[in-house]
Design a protein that fits this description.
This protein is of the alpha/beta class. It has a single domain, classed as Rossmann fold (3-Layer(aba) Sandwich). It has helices at residues 40-48, 70-76, 93-100, 108-119, 121-125, 136-148, 166-181, 193-199, 217-222, 224-231, 233-236, and strands at residues 2-11, 14-24, 29-33, 53-60, 63-64, 78-81, 154-158, 185-189, 202-207, 210-216. A hairpin with a 2-residue loop joins strand 4 and strand 5 (63-64). Helix 3 runs parallel beside helix 6. The longest helix has 16 residues, at 166-181. The chain is globular. The N and C termini lie far apart (37 Å). Bound molecules: adenosine-5'-triphosphate and magnesium ion.
């Protein structure tokens, strides 16, 4: 489905991703892990079209994405739930979701909102609340829901569980489990190594913009010492569970 070949990208003259090869197959959950600054977010932003590729190719169902701006990539079936959630703080949950469905016909909006509320019933209770009043977990649900409003075939999620209470981490993973059952592929960036490797089918490890390990998540779990040594101290300890979630203003 997604085929990344020898991809390099960066900002200005700085190259932060060097010759990445990565595939995501239909219905597959793939984890992209690595320490801070490894290039995980840059990779997702490059797939989504927000960061330009300097060399290499990104193909989706055989089509070269290079000429396509971000909104056309959404139409192809790629949606991003970005790092930090990036909700519109002065818009309600409903309005944030509607924004995510801009690429779909208007008639699809109500049906897709229903689908998001089925997945995250909590959002039904917060439907008319402003984005900035939501807890971190609720915000993450909206961010994933907003991406789903575009009816993606591939969902890119940047930092699923960072800063969330364990209960909300579980809710988000249960939602991903349902999406996987519907055949949606997921490329998942996670700081939580245990969760990422337990849930994904395959994993790629980036360090300083280079791919340093890839394989099945089962192999990574069996060789967790290897993966941790690759990641270094940055990921050798899973982040402590958040006792309370951040509210953004
Ligand atoms: N907008 C930007 N302009 C310039 N450099 C950037 C920009 N965004 C990221 N970088 C640099 O690119 C490199 C990779 O950053 P990126 O955010 O992709 O890493 P990451 O793996 O997502 O890290 P983290 O775990 O902290 O989210 C880093 O050296 C970072 O400083
Ligand atoms: Mg990042």
């Amino acid at each position: 489905m997604l085929n990344i070949d020898n991809l390099s990208c960066g900002y200005g003259s700085a190259v932060v991703l060097h010759g990445l090869n990565l595939q995501v197959n239909a219905s597959e959950v793939v984890a992209l892990i690595g320490p801070n600054g490894a290039g995980k977010t840059s990779t997702l932003q490059c797939i989504a079209g927000h960061v330009r590729a300097q060399s290499g190719t990104v193909r989706f169902n055989g089509k070269d994405l290079a000429p396509l701006p971000p909104q056309k990539r959404v139409l192809e079936g790629i949606a991003l739930s970005p790092e930090g959630r990036k909700l519109f703080g002065d818009m309600t949950v409903r309005e944030n979701l509607v924004v995510g469905g801009y690429s779909r016909p208007r008639e699809a909006t109500a049906r897709n909102i229903e689908r998001v509320l089925d997945l995250f019933p909590r959002l039904g209770e917060r439907f008319d609340s402003l984005g900035r009043t939501l807890s971190g977990g609720e915000q993450q649900m909206v961010a994933i829901g907003r991406a789903l409003m575009a009816e993606p075939k591939l969902l890119l999620i940047d930092e699923l569980s960072l800063g969330l209470m364990p209960k909300n981490v579980d809710i988000c993973y249960q939602a991903l489990q349902k999406l996987r059952g519907e055949g949606i592929a997921v490329l998942l960036v996670e700081q939580n190594l245990s969760k990422a490797l337990a849930f994904s089918d395959r994993a790629y490890v980036l360090d300083s913009g280079r791919l340093v390990w890839s394989g099945t998540s089962e192999a990574a779990r069996a060789r967790r010492d290897l993966v941790e040594s690759i990641l270094g101290h940055a990921a050798s300890a899973d982040p402590a569970p958040a006792s309370h979630e951040e509210l953004t203003s």
